[in-house]
Each structure stands twice: as C-alpha cells, then as structure tokens.
Automatic annotation (TrEMBL):
Family named by the database record: Belongs to the SlyX family.
Name this polypeptide is given: Protein SlyX homolog
Gene: slyX
Organism, as annotated: Aurantimonas marianensis
Keywords: Coiled coil
Domain of life of the native organism: Bacteria
Coiled-coil regions listed in the entry: 12-60
Length: 73
C-alpha cells in the first residue's frame, strides 16, 4: 500500500470513529430528551391537579358575598 493510500485509509478510519461517537451522542441526547419530556408531562399533570384542588378549596373556604342593593337605592 502506498503512503497516499495509507493516509486515506487512516482518514476514513478517523471519520468512521467520529461518526460512531456522534451516533452514540445522538442516542444519549435522545434518551435525555425523552426523560425530560416525561418529567414535563408529569409536572403538568401535577400542576393541573393542584390547580383543581386549589380551586375546590377556594370555593369552600371563601364565603360568597351576598347580593344586595347598594344603600342609595
């Protein structure tokens, strides 16, 4: 094998290694993104539930104002 072929072979090997590392990084980032979305969805459900509980508690705890005519009537 000539020197030029050896250089090309080495460059191809380096590119293959780089592509493999990039593929692994993409897989890791994809998994991290999936976990982040699961966390966000769980937090949204929790927030919705807490909002509903707060609304229900507020209805019970806050007295309704009486509807009366103003004094000048």
């Amino acid at each position: 094998m000539s020197e030029k072929q050896a250089e090309i072979s080495e460059r191809v090997q380096d590119l293959e290694i780089m592509a493999a590392h990039q593929a692994q990084t993409i897989e890791e980032l994809s998994e991290e993104l999936r976990r982040a979305f699961e966390t966000i969805e769980r937090m949204q459900r929790t927030l919705k539930s807490l909002g509903q509980r707060f609304d229900a508690l507020e209805e019970v705890a806050t007295p309704k104002p009486e509807i009366t005519k103003p004094p000048h009537y």
